[in-house]
Amino acid sequence: MIEILIADDHVLFREGLKRILKRESDLAVIAEATNGREVIDRVKQKQPDIVLLDISMPGESGLEVLEALKRDFAKVKVLILSMHPEDRFASRAFKMGALGYITKESAVEELVQAIRKIVSGGRYVSPAFAEKLASDLSMARDKLPHERLSNREFQIMRLIAAGKKIHTIAEELSLSRNSINTYRMRILEKMEVQSNAELTRYAIENKLIE
């Protein structure tokens, strides 16, 4: 039997989910929660196999609750239920430890399938979002490293590659030195280089600086 906790502050939505799940002989709702604090308490008390977690709840957001669950109850699996489209929050939710993400609009069609796949050790994304992820990965592979940068990152990359010091760039752009250092680390990571020297070499080879 797969034991489930439903975390959502809308009673009508919870009742709708329970009606869907009652049709399945191997699924059982053992607890409900309406806010983040209750989710943590119910998980501690009931130890469900999976939490159906709404992103938008009173108090702590669903993503904050997700972070706490993965920190304190690592074995509990989490399926995000959200009114927000997948392209808004799904990637972030997966990075934080969620194993599935479905919109509330698609819950009727996808809920049972998603629960079973997650509990059996898999991850669940809708076919539409899976296609988007594949497209994004393909586009990312086709991009040159500097094309991955935001406009501000590109601006700072060119200044660093031109040999300007951090404090000079900070003054020129009216930003703090810490901000410029943060941008620098992000630029090196996105462009997959290890040092300012490599950055300069890349910029020269690609005619990004004179």
Please state the structural category: alpha/beta
What is the third-level CATH name, the topology of the largest domain? Rossmann fold
Superfamily (CATH H level) name of the largest domain: Response regulator
Summed over residues and divided by their number, the pLDDT gives a mean of 89
How does the SSE layout of this entry go?
Blueprint: E1 2-7, H1 11-22, E2 27-33, H2 36-46, E3 50-54, H3 62-72, E4 77-82, H4 86-95, E5 100-103, H5 107-119, H6 127-142, H7 151-161, H8 166-173, H9 177-191, H10 196-205
Parallel strand pairs: 1-2, 1-3, 3-4, 4-5
Summarize the structure.
Helices cover about 55% and strands about 15% of the residues. It is an alpha/beta fold and about 210 residues long. The protein folds into two domains: about 1-125, Rossmann fold (3-Layer(aba) Sandwich), CATH 3.40.50.2300; about 145-205, Orthogonal Bundle (Arc Repressor Mutant, subunit A), CATH 1.10.10.
Can you walk through the features of this model?
The structure is a single chain. The chain is of the alpha/beta class. It has 2 domains: 2-125, Rossmann fold, CATH 3.40.50.2300; 145-205, Winged helix-like DNA-binding domain superfamily/Winged helix DNA-binding domain (Arc Repressor Mutant, subunit A, Orthogonal Bundle), CATH 1.10.10.10. It is built from 10 helices and 5 strands; from the N terminus they run βαβαβαβαβαααααα. The chain has helices at residues 11-22, 36-46, 62-72, 86-95, 107-119, 127-142, 151-161, 166-173, 177-191, 196-205; strands spanning 2-7, 27-33, 50-54, 77-82, 100-103. Strands 2-1-3-4-5 form a 5-stranded parallel sheet, with helices on both faces. Helix 4 links the parallel strand 4 and strand 5. Helix 8 crosses helix 9 (177-191). The longest helix is centred in the middle third of the chain and has 16 residues, at 127-142. The chain is elongated, with a radius of gyration of 23 Å. The protein starts with a strand and ends in a 5-residue tail after the last helix.
